[in-house]
Design brief:
Helix content is 84%, strand content 0%. By secondary structure, it is mainly alpha-helical. Helix 1 (2-20) runs parallel beside helix 9 (187-210) and helix 4 (66-89) packs parallel to helix 8.
Length: 236
């Protein structure tokens, strides 16, 4: 039953991922941690995010801002190295979950309550990218912070999606190598990965259809509401 619920969560999260270009893993991670455990959730969702990003990148290649892809990847890879190290040194999983939940709540609340877009200094934007990498290294979920940066520099909806997609491919490929070296892949989570490919493909196809029909603003607001729920579930 837990696996069936997980597949439903994965499907819904990746429909939103295909529409907005982010938030799929951020939304799926909190319930997946409770359903699968942190290690299994990170392994399965990392592979799913990699495949999702690859599909979106291929389908939207001509909208991609390649210069921004390189800048984002360089900054976030540096942050990921820090995040992976933090996970190795912090002894309590519960402490990490509370920190993660608070970060999600702050980002979701800010975006729901403050609709006015302010131009941020370039140095501050680079710090945001670094922190997004740290969070991604810890929880495979740096999208919530990355969108703060992306909203400043990527103004068109299609460019936004197409530019973020290859970023997830690069970052999650690096995490995949790290996870293989750590030996966290098991027969159980490999089986779940193979099963999850079907709802992932269906969700990406449906999201691609919906993105042309529904306002980006509507789905972004829905995403932030769901982020609030996810964040609360982690700290309560």
């Amino acid at each position: 039953m837990k696996e069936i619920i997980f597949l439903f969560v994965l499907f819904v999260a990746n429909v939103i991922q295909a529409i907005t270009g982010f938030a799929g893993t951020v939304l799926a991670m909190p319930p997946s941690i409770y359903l699968l455990g942190m290690d299994n959730a990170k392994v399965v969702l990392n592979v799913m995010a990699l495949l999702s990003g690859l599909m979106i990148a291929v389908m939207s290649y001509h909208h991609m801002n390649k210069k921004e892809v390189i800048k984002i990847c360089v900054c976030m890879v540096a942050g990921m190295a820090i995040g992976i190290q933090i996970c190795k040194t912090v002894p309590s999983e519960q402490i990490l979950l509370i920190i993660y939940g608070v970060i999600i709540l702050l980002i979701a609340g800010k975006n729901l309550l403050c609709h006015r877009q302010r131009t941020l200094p370039k140095a501050f934007l680079l710090v945001i990218l670094l922190l997004a990498g740290v969070i991604h290294g810890m929880f495979v979920s740096g999208g919530a912070l990355l969108v703060v940066y992306a909203a400043q520099v990527l103004k068109e909806k299609e460019e936004f999606r197409a530019t973020l997609a290859p970023v997830w491919v690069v970052l999650n490929s690096i995490l995949l190598v790290s996870q293989v070296r750590q030996g966290v892949f098991t027969e159980g989570n490999i089986r779940l990965i193979l099963i999850s490919i079907i709802p992932l493909f269906m969700a990406t196809w449906l999201g691609k259809k919906l993105v042309k029909k529904v306002s980006q603003k509507v789905f972004l607001n829905l995403t932030y509401v769901l982020l609030l729920v996810s964040g609360l579930s982690l700290i309560l």
